[in-house]
Amino acid sequence: MAVSKKEALLQAAKDLFGECGYNETTFKKIAERANVAMGLMTHHFGNKEKLFLACGLDVLENFHKKLSAATAGAPDGMTAVYRYCKAYLDFSVDPSTNWLVLVRCSPYSDMKTTSDRDIMIEKFMQIHQVLIEALKRGLEDHSIARVDPVQTAIIIVSLMVGVNRTRVLTPYAPDNFYEEALDFVVRAVAPCEGMPLVQE
Amino acid sequence: MAVSKKEALLQAAKDLFGECGYNETTFKKIAERANVAMGLMTHHFGNKEKLFLACGLDVLENFHKKLSAATAGAPDGMTAVYRYCKAYLDFSVDPSTNWLVLVRCSPYSDMKTTSDRDIMIEKFMQIHQVLIEALKRGLEDHSIARVDPVQTAIIIVSLMVGVNRTRVLTPYAPDNFYEEALDFVVRAVAPCEGMPLVQE
Amino acid sequence: MAVSKKEALLQAAKDLFGECGYNETTFKKIAERANVAMGLMTHHFGNKEKLFLACGLDVLENFHKKLSAATAGAPDGMTAVYRYCKAYLDFSVDPSTNWLVLVRCSPYSDMKTTSDRDIMIEKFMQIHQVLIEALKRGLEDHSIARVDPVQTAIIIVSLMVGVNRTRVLTPYAPDNFYEEALDFVVRAVAPCEGMPLVQE
Amino acid sequence: MAVSKKEALLQAAKDLFGECGYNETTFKKIAERANVAMGLMTHHFGNKEKLFLACGLDVLENFHKKLSAATAGAPDGMTAVYRYCKAYLDFSVDPSTNWLVLVRCSPYSDMKTTSDRDIMIEKFMQIHQVLIEALKRGLEDHSIARVDPVQTAIIIVSLMVGVNRTRVLTPYAPDNFYEEALDFVVRAVAPCEGMPLVQE
DNA sequence: GATGAATGAGGCTTCATTCAT
DNA sequence: CATGAATGAAGCCTCATTCAT
């Protein structure tokens, strides 16, 4: 077969956790979608929570790669920041990324076990770190205003979290909402006289 | 007795939904905390979802009042926007407001029934509306930059959602995080040459 | 109805735990025999182990009463000891006592939870105590040999445990096995020249 | 390797059945402790019950040898009886004998299959037989009182069962409990005027 | 209004056993 | 012989909801 049953299980779980949330996703649903016996889930992943965590970490891994790649080739700090935000938002609306798992499984949502929480928190730290680097670069090349890079990063990520939830979970987001949000970020971190800002 | 059993029930439910989330909050827990019989819940509220909705609406009602009051006496649009955001954030860290119910019960989270979702969405619309009014005022008195008031309102609320989640659900928020977030908003909507902005 | 559902549940559980042992006794079996919904078991008893404990304590309670009554009217210590043993053995073959529960639920068997074990251990202590009193009486009225009453009690109870298991769980016990066992006890604690011993 | 995987499996099974009992001992636990694949258990032993039986028989075999050896060299019947009991009790507290398997796996406990039960019953018969021989010798050489050897053997074994359970499963056994139990036996089978009884 | 015993569907998880490799 | 992924039945327990009192 092309994919192992373990992989099929993980994919089915990511789909369903994203679609239905943690509680509405049952072992039976997952097993049926993956065409696999129920007992195989605990065999491979231990229990439901561990499976959930595995899903979250898998998505987060891909997310981190995307963000790193996006900022890597930027000509200046401001552009890196911009690309980071754009990559964040693009990732969040790409159905193939199973992003919704993260909307429900992240330090921004609930994890029962403390140890699992800690693992997610650690991973999310790395997500912040990519943005912090971009902001620091912007400080050095004067492409962004004099702001504290750590605090600003946390706020920008918070903004991403918020606009993403608005887009993904509510009917309020207008058509060009993400573009507006990007403008908003640029405006907030641009140097006052900042003219060109970002050329894409 | 000072409070009716129905009120005791609602308060216990708000506490527990906020603490434990929807699924971990059981009728038994609520009844025990309220010192009331289990059967009284369906008697007064119909079912769990309706009770949940009642809790959310109750919090939202108070929230709406706070935001309206905060913007009402502002000398100008920008200050109104600022006060809106400040009131939002203050409300979200006041334990007596049962804010956490909204973090878990909102159009930003899951509601099963479509009709219930619609009621919440409608109520949240009003929350946005308060900010939209403030922004419009700012446009008229030139205390804020030329932005689309609706879109900007949605973005600012999204930012509030995000920073609030960061503060309430994660360990990333630094000490003066909310102050920074307020600055961020001000910077983003201020007219370019805007000096004084807000005097509080 | 004559008996409450809770009582019906307890009786069905005693029957089945005695017949099938702990592990082969399922919630489903108990509920069916008691003509009651499965969920009622946890409602009334918390969980399977607590139900098991309740069964054991119930039987033990009756057991203790029987032993106390048996020794109460004895004319002398030796007779009290004899009657204790006889009552023990009679109880153990009376189907209406649900004795088999104790064969499987006692400090002489396995209990998972430590706290439950402690409760059973404490209760069994009282069973021993009744025999210790009888032996002490026998020491005072010289109807039994000079032995340590506590140690001897423990040995006699151990003997009861052993002969009972032989009778109840194996095919080795001959017809008049219990009578022989009683003789054995009498011989072991009788004063050497002891002639009359026990008149029943 | 020093021991075959089959042997490692049997030893691990004996350890775990003794420690945890039948139901709490799983194939997985055994396989892990023996550092062996799960599938090997059914490969070598057929199924769990057969493995359990193999463990029980293995212990019983060694037990039988010990008892036979203990009585073999006795100078008289009474001493043989005494040595039998002593060997029984010594065996039961020697950790290397895996005695606990027998405490939980014996005709005194549950075996599901009738055929397996019969095998164990047959084996236990031989254990009794050793004591019966000793008692018969004692009757012939007048070192014990005039008792029925078969019935007395069954009672003495029952006593061993009881005191052993008291010692192994409960906290009631005092320090010199086994010595007391031996005295108890000697007293019960000694000829009335019997002075020397046993010289060890 | 108020109580809590009673219901029963359904969830997660365990585990002996099978089988392809 | 040896492995361990895979199976699926069955167990315990949870919990919203009903209903007689």
Oligomer: homotetramer
**What's the name of the CATH homologous superfamily of chain A?**
Tetracycline Repressor, domain 2
Helix count of chain A equals 9
Helix content of chain A: over 70%
Task: Offer a few descriptive terms.
homotetramer; DNA-binding; Tetracycline Repressor, domain 2; 200 residues; mainly alpha; 0% strand
How is this fold's topology laid out?
Four copies of one chain form a homotetramer.
Chain A (H helix, E strand, L loop, with lengths): L4 H20 L2 H8 L4 H7 L2 H25 L4 H17 L5 H6 L9 H27 L8 H21 L7 H13 L11
Helix pairs in contact in A: 1-2, 1-4, 4-5, 4-7, 5-7, 5-8, 5-9, 7-8, 8-9
The first copy, chain A, binds a DNA duplex (21 and 21 nucleotides) through helix 3.
Structure description:
The structure is a homotetramer of 200-residue chains. By secondary structure, chain A is an all-alpha fold. The first copy, chain A, has one domain: Tetracycline Repressor, domain 2. Helix content of chain A is 72%, strand content 0%. The mean pLDDT of chain A is 91. The A-B interface holds A 21-23, 107-110, 121, 124-125, 128, 148, 150-152, 154-155, 157-163, 165-166, 169-174, 177, 180-181, 184, 187-188, 192 and B 21-23, 107-110, 121, 124-125, 128, 148, 150-152, 154-155, 157-163, 165-166, 169-174, 177, 180-181, 184, 187-188, 192. Chain A binds a DNA duplex (21 and 21 nucleotides) through residues 4-6, 26-28, 36-44, 47-48.
